[in-house]
Specification:
101 residues; mainly alpha; 3 helices; elongated
Length: 101
């Protein structure tokens, strides 16, 4: 008997390109923060807070992608569930950076 493969190729492709998107998002936000610091009236404490939130969001998103990749490749549900939980935190951070900033 042949065992059925449970890993999902479209999910793996999506996670692969999401890693590139996340890095591009980080680089563009760093450029935007340099623009804000030089051209706009922006307090130092707000800039420090948002920069730390930016790197924390990147760290959480990187961890989320790695856990989802590991869970998909090993066909293990626990890393995928943790990845879904981290997705909520990343979604809240993206909403902050897009709308509430």
């Amino acid at each position: 008997m042949r065992q059925q493969q449970l890993s999902f190729l479209p999910l793996q492709v999506l996670l692969h390109f999401n890693g590139y998107y996340t890095f591009l998002w980080l680089a563009l936000n760093i450029v935007i923060f340099f623009y804000k610091a030089n051209k706009l009236f922006y307090t130092v404490t707000a800039l420090r807070w948002e920069t730390s939130m930016l790197f924390l969001t990147y760290l959480i998103d990187f961890t989320r992608i790695k856990m989802a990749t590991r869970g998909n490749k090993t066909e293990n549900a626990v890393p995928l569930i943790w990845s879904c939980g981290l997705s909520v935190a990343v979604a809240v951070a993206y909403i902050f950076f897009l709308n509430l900033q």
